[in-house]
Specification:
This is Peptidoglycan hydrolase. This protein is an alpha+beta fold. Helix content is about 30%, strand content about 15%.
Length: about 260
């Protein structure tokens, strides 16, 4: 059975305790004075630590082989745990050692993918501080479930766009959450029909919330909930595009907001 601590120790050994170079031409020549690349080193150390790596041969098939054998694919949230495999499925892989450090094979002595055997520069394989490479995921060994996301309090799906609905909409869009759609044009029954907003102020200066919505939908950002904006919202929500912000549109909005998104 695999041991994460052994994985950490073997990665540290190969990256600092011996002269192991980087070259994709002979990437499996893992010995003092030999060569590896980022994925062959991680796969080699996994096997040394007793893990079954299946048919894994490079970054592109590492995740599928390990997740079939007790590893979990987790979001790269900037908080890795010791023993996590830091993976970009296309380009790179490293192992997080803990204490803010990772171990990796980086590049040859020429800064390219091929070089001579052994570590010519002292950092072809290396231990360094964790950095925000565009990791696609962390692979973590163990069967503990992923902690559930905190439950989002539900708003009532009643078709009335009152303060609770507006406040949630503002929270989702990242604007001030005061529960009021402010600065709207006074409805004239033609250009601006009265929308189904139970929490609204008029004055024509526009709303931060509506500007954020318009930006999300690729519209001109005047902050006004006019017919064009309403139709775009309806298209986004998948309801009839009649330009009227009525109960059917509001119910679709409320259902979306209860999922924590717009």
């Amino acid at each position: 059975m695999g041991n994460v601590n052994v994985l950490i120790n073997r990665m540290r050994y190969w990256c600092t305790g011996t002269s192991l170079g980087y070259s994709q031409a002979d990437r499996w020549d893992i010995r003092p004075g030999g060569n590896c690349d980022c994925s062959s080193l991680v796969i080699h150390c996994l096997r040394e630590a007793g893990f079954d790596t299946g048919s894994a041969t490079y970054t592109g098939n590492l995740s599928s082989n390990l997740t079939a054998r007790g590893w979990r694919r987790l979001p790269a949230d900037g908080r890795p745990q010791a023993g996590d495999i830091l993976l970009n499925d296309r380009c790179h892989v490293a192992v997080f050692l803990g204490g803010g450090l990772l171990a990796q094979a980086s590049a040859s002595e020429h800064g390219t993918i091929n070089g001579t055997g052994g570590d010519q520069t002292g950092h072809e394989t290396n231990v360094r501080g964790y950095y925000s490479y565009p990791w696609d995921c962390y692979l973590r060994y163990g069967s503990a479930p992923v902690p559930p996301k905190p439950a989002v309090p539900q708003i009532e799906v009643d078709g009335s766009c009152g303060p609770a609905t507006v406040r949630r909409w503002q929270q989702v869009m990242g604007t001030q959450a005061d529960g009021v759609v402010s600065g709207q044009v006074e409805p004239d029954g033609r250009t601006y029909a009265r929308p189904s907003l139970a929490s609204c102020t008029y004055g024509g200066y526009g709303s931060q919330l509506i500007r954020a919505v318009q930006a999300r939908l690729g519209l001109a950002r005047d902050g006004l909930l006019g017919p064009a904006t309403i139709r775009a919202i309806q298209a986004h929500l998948g309801v009839v595009q009649d330009g009227s912000f009525g109960p059917a549109t509001v119910r679709a909005l409320q259902a979306r907001l209860n999922q924590g998104t717009f």
